[in-house]
Amino acid sequence: MPALIGLLLLGLLLSTLAPRLLARACWVEREPVLALLVWQCLVVAVLLCCALGLVLAASAAMPELRALVFAGAPHGVEAAYGLQEAEGWGRLCAAVLAAGGVQTVLALTREVRTAKALRDRRHAQLADRAPELPESIEAARSRRERLVVLENVRPEAWSLPGPDSRLVVTTGALQQLTDRELAAVLSHERGHVRARHHWLQQFAQALASGFPGVGVFAAFRDQVAELVELAADDRAARRHGRHTTALALAELNLDRGVFGSCPPGLAQSPKRVDRLLAGRPRLSVPHRLQLTVAALAAPAAAVLLAFAPGLHSLL
Asked: In whole angstroms, what separates CA 312 from the centre of its chain?
């Protein structure tokens, strides 16, 4: 059972060591999109270790499944995995991993349903406050991110993702922001919608809620929530300038008291403003390529580890 043990050890190593390394990395805020890719590759690698480990463990526990998995494999491949001698241990591992898989599916299904219900409710509330919105989704699909203005003295802006996505701003924001600042805010929100950040956040939230004791999934959820904002900030800054984007962000949050002593949950806005004003350069292209290759190597290592005994037997 070397492949199964190797997959479990690799998954444990990735879920414990990699998040600590990413937390200490100084390049994350400079490359939020790349950091999102690294986190996704890390989580996919951990899930692959569990899924492939489940297949091997179940194959060891059930001869019928083992015959199906190795059907058509060359002579000696099945024996190279040593599954025949580990039926009892394989049954235990398969039960644990299968329970985790079921929990993941249930958590993801619950999160998708909850998010859809919340999105539908917010769209309905928006339709009540802005009755000029078209009710037909088909009509809305012909336009990308329709802009909606709401009567509210508080300066706010947000996006409602989905097939009938909306960019919402209040009259308070229109009065407080300049034209360039408003364009930067809309570019930020448009970045969330077009990059499908809500899908990534739902997936991260599902893993964190499904496995509350697994640190890598909790860290993934927290990092995604922060990095998608930085990525949207960068999109707006590239189009409208860092100073304009920083001023717009500051104007929208001045009356919330986040630029003084504030709770930790509200402390991200001043950090984002400082980051935009600092204007630190991006990583060099070779450095970005190295990090991308390293990120993609994590899920590739899980796949290679699962197939290593079979490939070795053919040499």
From this structure: 35
Nearest CA-CA partner of 14 in 43, 54, 53, 57: 43
Structural tokens at position 297? 């190597």
pTM: 0.84
Q: How long a stretch of residues is the chain? A: 315
Rounded distance between C-alpha atoms, residue 65 and residue 50, angstroms: 17
Give Dmax (Cα) for the chain. Answer: 75
Distances (CA, A) of 230 to 132, 139, 190, 225: 33, 32, 13, 9
pLDDT tens sequence across 111-157 = 878 877 887 787 777 766 665 444 443 444 445 668 888 888 889 88
- Rounded Cα–Cα distance for residues 306 and 54 (Å): 11
Average pLDDT, whole number, for the chain?
84
Task: Please name every residue paired with 150 in a beta bridge, in sequence order, or none if there are none.
Answer: 170
Cα separations in angstroms, 67 against 99, 268, 303? 23, 54, 20
Residue 34's SS3 state is helix
| C-alpha span between 228 and 108 (Å, rounded) | 20
Each residue of 14-30: pLDDT tens digit? 999 999 999 889 899 99
